[in-house]
Amino acid sequence: MAETIKALVEGGKASAGPPLGPALGPLGVNIMQIINAINDKTKQFNGMKVPVKVIVDPKTKNFEIEIGTPPAASLILNELGAEKGSGAPSTHKIGNLTLDQAIKVAKMKQDNLLGRELKQKTKEVIGTCVSLGVTVEGKKPQEIQKAIDDGEFDTKFS
């Protein structure tokens, strides 16, 4: 029976310390080999938290690594170059996302978003901006979502 270890690691900077080391140790696998493979697969998400799933077969010591995409909030903050979201999102804004950046994040998260088309997926990403205290195109995220529904930005989605 394969063992599965799930963890959230910083892209390209996984280490043999917690959370991975203590979970992998009892399985008798080469921890550094797994850590290096994770770092190799996550280096493009440098500075972001990335969900990682390590599946180990305890008999053969073979392992498989599945990398998720960072949360939409992390990708948005990365686009803005911000450290963290606003503590008071309704009054304190931390940055402004362009619609093109929102579309870029939606494309990165494509497989994990619920919308059928890029338009709906982008609206989901813009929805995340509400709780982060981020404006989109200089307006409230809800206004941009309504504008997308009204077809104002259809040229960007074709």
Q: Can you describe this structure?
A:
There is one protein chain. The chain is of the alpha+beta class and 158 residues long. The protein has 2 domains: 3-67, 2-Layer Sandwich (Ribosomal protein L11, N-terminal domain); 72-157, Ribosomal protein L11/L12, C-terminal domain (Arc Repressor Mutant, subunit A), CATH 1.10.10. It is built from 7 helices and 5 strands; from the N terminus they run E-H-H-E-E-H-E-H-H-E-H-H. It has helices spanning 20-24, 31-42, 72-80, 99-108, 118-132, 141-149, 154-157; strands at 3-10, 49-56, 63-67, 95-97, 134-136. The strands form 2 sheets. It has a 3-stranded antiparallel sheet. Strand 2 (49-56) and strand 3 (63-67) form a beta hairpin. Helix 4 (99-108) crosses helix 5 (118-132). The radius of gyration is 19 Å and the shape is elongated.
What is this structure's SSE topology?
Blueprint: E1 3-10, H1 20-24, H2 31-42, E2 49-56, E3 63-67, H3 72-80, E4 95-97, H4 99-108, H5 118-132, E5 134-136, H6 141-149, H7 154-157
Parallel strand pairs: 4-5
Antiparallel strand pairs: 1-2, 2-3
Helix pairs in contact: 3-4, 4-5, 5-6
